Amino acid sequence: QVQLVESGGGLVQAGGSLRLSCAASGLTFSSYTMGWFRQAPGKEREFVARIWSGGRTFYADLLKGRFTISRDNTKNTAYLQMNSLRPEDTAVYYCTAIRGVVATVVPGLYDYWGQGTQVTVSS
Prior knowledge:
The protein has about 120 residues and is an all-beta fold. About 0% of the residues lie in helices and about 50% in strands. It has no helices and eleven strands. It is globular. About 30% of the residues are buried.
């Protein structure tokens, strides 16, 4: 059974940083593209970043320079480092996985999802 378990969310002041982690089990981690999406209240789920097994990364244009996605294939874990956080970054952040080397921002195409972790940025 595949599980993606996020951690690291919380409350932070504007300008602060958080590092999210996603621990994966039940899959061959190195065979999957890992991604992060987020969903704010009343809004659709939106793409944040993804990383291929070999380490190539892709970001939503508006988040480039503030967010960094990474992975450790030896620990079956993906990370999202978020810096210079803004109140508009407040959302539930979801870890996701899709098999193969995939370039998509469509959430419905991803195979597996975590339960989400809340990130709240106060002004």
